[in-house]
Design goal:
The structure is a single chain. The strands form 2 sheets. Strands 1-4 form a two-stranded antiparallel sheet. A two-stranded antiparallel sheet has the order 2-3. The chain is 75% helix and 2% strand. It has 13 helices and 4 strands. α2 packs across α11, α2 packs across α12 and α11 crosses α12.
Length: 330
């Protein structure tokens, strides 16, 4: 674990202890299970966001993609009686296509990631609303999909399967980012894309792969959310989820300038955000303040990242000066 991760883990434990003291219901089995389920649901697309941020990019269309793919997944099963494995395959293919499209627009047409994904946010939400005629896509009363519901919404030994999926994705993501050549290329592109290109890295391919991976994980998240709610209202489903993912990534040490971050940090960031949101609910504070909490977290994370980077730069310069003076004295 990095120093940032240790500090964040300490903060998570401290905040959890404070919340438990403020309201003992926080430690009730039902509340812990529900909180764990939400950690799993929100954690999937937070890791997805992290893979893009590490390349100095941004993905603002996650919430809209979750709404669109959720609508399609539910409608294929409920309205067209498509077997759920086939519906799942369709959703995953569409998610990969979305990732390829974003990556192509950014690398080939040289568009800014902010512009591409902001347009995606509007387009996918609009398509989802048009597809349902501004209605709700949902399962009919009494619909039963035992295997699908068990795999996505079920629990084993009291542990929600969303947490299991989040844990597995986190392990694979940690290995990809921190133990593979692909991960090193992601960090290199985020640090300095020109230097990475001159060192022989196919930067366009790396960026495209990052957006495809992000969209793929978002597609998985869309299925989990669709089965969690069992109905999808395109006008509100997934609203501001991209901000949640950005907040979790920033808390986890991913710099918005790219080239830095830790998957362990993202996991801890998701847990911290859910604990804070749970505190808001337990204290009876209006749920609308959730957005204020996320905004404050993003701001605090960016300020901390800026100050930490400035401190490291000053420290590096001081060490260089000390080394120069030492060499002159010799």
């Amino acid at each position: 674990m990095q120093k940032k991760d240790i500090g964040l883990a300490t903060l998570v434990v401290s905040v959890g202890a404070i919340v438990a003291m403020v309201n003992p219901r926080f430690l009730s089995p039902i509340n812990l299970a529900n909180t764990a389920n939400l950690i799993g649901l929100f954690g999937l697309f937070s890791i997805a966001e992290a893979f893009v941020i590490v390349t100095a990019g941004i993905e603002l269309s996650i919430g809209s993609v979750i709404a669109l793919l959720g609508v399609i997944f539910v409608d294929l099963i409920a309205s067209f009686n498509v077997p759920w494995p086939m519906a799942l395959a369709v959703v995953m293919v569409l998610s990969i296509f979305i990732g390829l499209l974003h990556g192509w627009l950014i690398t080939r047409l040289k568009l800014q990631p902010f512009v591409v994904t902001l347009c995606g946010l509007l387009i996918y939400r609009g398509v989802a609303r048009f597809y349902t005629k501004d209605g709700t896509a949902g399962f009919t009363f009494g619909s039963d999909f035992p295997m699908l519901e068990f795999l996505v919404s079920g629990r084993t030994a009291g542990v929600p399967h969303s947490v299991v999926a989040f844990g597995l994705v986190a392990i694979v993501a940690w290995f990809l980012l921190h133990r593979t050549v692909f991960g090193r290329h992601l960090f290199a592109v985020g640090k300095n894309v020109e230097a990475a290109r001159y060192s022989g890295i196919d930067t366009d391919r790396v960026i495209i792969q990052a957006y495809v991976l992000c969209a793929f994980l978002t597609g998985i998240s869309a299925v989990f959310f669709a089965m969690y709610t069992r109905s999808v209202q395109p006008s509100s489903h997934g609203n501001f989820y991209e901000l949640y993912g950005i907040a979790a990534a920033v808390l986890g040490g991913f710099s918005l300038r790219g080239g830095e971050g830790s998957i362990v940090g993202v996991v801890l960031g998701v847990i911290l955000l859910q604990i804070l949101q749970n505190l808001v609910n337990l204290l009876g504070i209006p749920s609308s303040l959730n957005f204020a909490v996320m905004g404050s977290v993003i701001l605090a994370g960016v300020i901390a990242d800026t100050q930490f980077s400035r401190y490291r730069e000053v420290r590096r310069q001081q060490m260089a000066m000390a080394a120069l003076q030492d060499s002159e004295q010799r």
